[in-house]
Write a structure and sequence with these properties.
Blueprint (H helix, E strand, L loop, with lengths): L2 H8 L11 E5 L2 E4 L4 E4 L2 H4 L8 H13 L10 H14 L4 E5 L2 H18 L7 E5 L8 H6 L17 E4 L2 H7 L4 E6 L2 E2 L5 E2 L2 H13 L3 E5 L13 H4 L6 E4 L10 E5 L18 H19 L2 H19 L4 E7 L2 E6 L2 H13 L2 E2 L1 E3 L3 E4 L7 H15 L3
Parallel strand pairs: 3-15, 5-6, 5-7, 7-10, 10-11
Antiparallel strand pairs: 1-2, 2-3, 4-12, 8-9, 11-12, 13-14, 14-17, 16-17
Helix pairs in contact: 3-10, 4-10, 11-13, 12-13
The structure holds pyridoxal-5'-phosphate (PLP).
């Protein structure tokens, strides 16, 4: 049986899969079973933040795996406490952290914190959460309902939980607030929605308004967090102080981990929330190793340099192929080219793979670039060389 047949027969077919079989990765290079090399501009949808085979990460994982992989959350877990401290210190916010295993789970935690806050802090219950129409917050029943993209609300999985509504833009959020609104949940750069950043001033004004009204601001940093937009958090870049922030993707460098952090440290009490695996020894050790690598690069100015280099290269491409792309979008190493049609988007992604370059789609017509934060100039140059080859046959 071929691998493709095996996959199709035994794995539930929830993804439209490509069947290139990657067997090895080094930095931002991937190798398939035939030894063919690919440049990775996707990093597992923004997950492999320190690339493939990073020595600091793999050594930390091997060492931790040889000692303890998992002990329940009923015991104190030293690397978990250290990771929470590191995240809080890097964020600059006075917050507490709960660890989960994915972005959706982190957002579930955020919504639970908001709901309990709304239940316990006001005379009459507040429970409604406002999100944005092009948002993406996860695939559990609640986070799919929190996701503003209508296509996700298929009747197959109904009934969904109550209390979510969607607005087209930030300025519409103000009008939608009522006395039952407890929180506004946003991404600062909408990832799945098309790599669309919001204006800093618009976000700062919203943050101030919500604070005055005692409505929580939840920032979903599942994709934007962990240096993806240049600072540790996009919230740092936007110079706001959210009430709740969620993280996942890049935090474990590929080891599943999610985190919800909040300045309302006393909302959850014992028994309110939990996770068997969340923040276990292995995933916390991964998080600590990833942050050690990235903090060092940040402090030496390497991340800023990489971001600038990638942006400049992409600008050249956007201009050169303006007949195919409307514009360049995104921030930091969360970038996209908005294609003129979705057919162009699909062809670019397929051609790129044929030329040995992995890129992603986002929204209906955006070609998305989410390289590892540790990508080198060499890898960037080679990737764009292949991208140009891919463009030759569009
Ligand atoms: C902004 C955002 N939130 C939440 C999620 C869901 O994360 P996960 O797939 O880890 O559950 C994603 C995943 O793409 C995301 O981009």
């Amino acid at each position: 049986m071929t691998l493709e047949k095996q996959d199709k027969h035994y794995v539930l077919q929830t993804y439209t899969r490509d069947y290139t079989n990657f067997v090895k990765g080094v930095g931002s290079r991937l190798y398939d079973e035939n030894g063919r090399e690919y440049i990775d501009f996707a990093s597992g949808i923004g997950v492999n933040s320190v690339g493939h085979g990073n020595k600091t990460l793999t050594s930390a994982l091997c060492e931790q795996a040889q000692n303890i992989i998992h002990i329940s959350n009923l015991q104190v877990i030293e690397p978990q406490a250290k990771l929470a401290q590191k995240i809080v210190e890097l964020s600059g916010y006075d917050m507490g952290v709960f660890f989960a295993n994915s972005g959706a789970e982190a957002n579930e935690g955020a919504i639970k914190i908001a709901r309990k806050y709304g239940e316990t802090h006001f005379d009459s219950k507040r429970y409604k959460v406002i999100t944005l129409e092009h948002s993406f917050h996860g695939r559990t029943i609640t986070t799919v309902k929190a996701t503003g993209q209508e296509s996700f609300h298929t009747p197959h999985f109904s009934p969904y939980p109550d209390g979510f509504s969607y607005e087209k833009s930030i300025k519409d959020v103000y009008k939608a607030i009522d006395k039952e609104t407890v929180a506004v949940l946003i991404e600062l750069v909408q990832g799945e929605g098309g790599v669309q950043p919001f204006e800093k001033t618009e976000i700062q004004a919203l943050a101030k308004y919500l604070k005055d009204k005692k409505i929580l601001l939840i920032v979903d940093e599942v994709q934007t967090g962990v240096y993806r937009t240049g600072e540790f958090l996009a919230s740092n870049l936007y110079e706001i102080e959210p009430d709740i922030i969620t993280l996942a993707k890049g935090l474990g460098g590929g080891v599943p981990i999610g985190a919800v952090m909040t300045k309302h440290k006393d909302i959850f009490s014992a028994g309110d929330h939990g996770s068997t695996f969340g923040g276990n020894y292995l995933s916390s050790a991964a998080g600590l190793a990833v942050l050690a690598v990235l903090e060092n690069l940040y402090d030496r100015g390497v991340i800023a340099e990489t971001h600038l280099y990638f942006e400049q290269k992409l600008e050249v491409i956007a201009k050169k192929y303006a007949m195919f792309f409307e514009k360049e979008v995104g921030l930091g190493l969360m970038r996209g080219l908005r294609a003129k049609t979705s057919n162009i988007q699909v062809s670019v992604i397929q051609n790129a793979l044929k030329e040995g370059l992995v890129v992603l789609k986002a929204g209906r017509n955006t070609v998305r670039f989410l390289p590892s934060i540790t990508i080198t100039k060499d890898e960037i140059n080679e990737g764009f060389k292949r991208f140009e080859k891919a463009m030759a046959t569009i």
